[in-house]
From TrEMBL:
Keyword Transport in record: no
Protein name as annotated: Small ribosomal subunit protein bS16
Xref: Pfam families: Ribosomal_S16 (PF00886)
Entry's family note: Belongs to the bacterial ribosomal protein bS16 family.
Natural source organism: Petrachloros mirabilis ULC683
Length: 82
């Protein structure tokens, strides 16, 4: 199963995350199938490749809880329904 989840990178106590599509059995920081965006919780900055995310969701990828909240803020699920 393909999951959309966060991949951690950055310094200690200053983590940033990449939103990636990855096999659900792979480790957190393993090689992703595709990088779909960026999330910085400290600066509250988000950059998303919306068209690629919509394609993955239509193919059946399941977002993690945190990624789901990020995508809801960006109104990505409305584009999936359309």
């Amino acid at each position: 199963m393909i999951k959309l989840r966060l991949k951690r990178f950055g310094k200690k106590r200053a983590a940033c995350y990449r939103i990636v599509a990855i096999n659900s059995r792979d480790r957190r920081d393993g090689r992703p199938l595709e990088e779909l965006g960026f999330y910085d919780p400290i600066k509250d900055e988000t950059r998303l490749k919306v068209d690629a995310i919509v394609k993955r969701l239509k193919d059946g990828a399941q977002p993690s809880d945190t990624v789901r909240r990020i995508l809801e803020k960006a109104n990505v699920f409305e584009q999936v329904k359309a």
